[in-house]
Design goal:
Shape: globular
Structural class: mainly alpha
Strand content: under 5%
Largest sheet: none
Oligomer: single chain
Length: 154
């Protein structure tokens, strides 16, 4: 279930129930090839990306539908590669419910990933910031804050 799973109730899905059933996608076989360390690493990247995404999206006091969709796409891209464990998905849900996430909270997630992984996260964050109406001045400041964090990280 994506971040939008709770927006749909059973009543709104009545028309869909009459359609031809769609075969549920299986998690790729590559999941079985990941070591526990690799799985943990991808989970940490997912949490860091999600926390920073919500921080960027909420910095202007308004998370738009486009921003929610871009965040959901970022998580879905990872979830297609591996099955994100339930405890990590629960943590992602907590992050999505926290519209007042602070920079200090975000840094706890960023601290869990390598410098190289931070650079990989950067592209996704720029897409979130630009998702609704381009990058606002407030979002630009947050992106600059993230870039400064990358440059000055010990």
């Amino acid at each position: 279930m994506g971040l939008f799973g709770n927006l749909f109730n059973n009543d709104s899905m009545d028309e869909v129930k009459n359609e031809t059933p769609v075969k549920e996608e299986a998690v790729p076989a590559e999941e079985n090839k990941l070591s526990p360390e690799e799985h943990a690493k991808l989970s940490k990247i997912t949490l860091a990306t999600t926390a920073l995404s919500y921080y960027v999206a909420a910095c202007d006091d308004n998370i738009t539908l486009d921003e929610y969709m871009e965040i959901d796409l970022n998580v879905s891209r990872i979830n297609k590669k591996i099955r994100i464990p339930d405890d990590i998905m629960a943590e992602i849900k907590k992050l999505s419910d926290n519209h007042n996430i602070t920079w200090d909270e975000v840094k706890t997630y960023l601290d869990m990933v390598s410098d190289t992984e931070l650079l990989e996260i950067k592209d996704g964050i720029n897409r979130v910031a630009a998702a609704s109406d381009g990058i606002s001045d407030t979002e630009k400041k947050v992106i600059d804050q993230f870039n400064s964090y990358i440059m000055n990280r010990n």
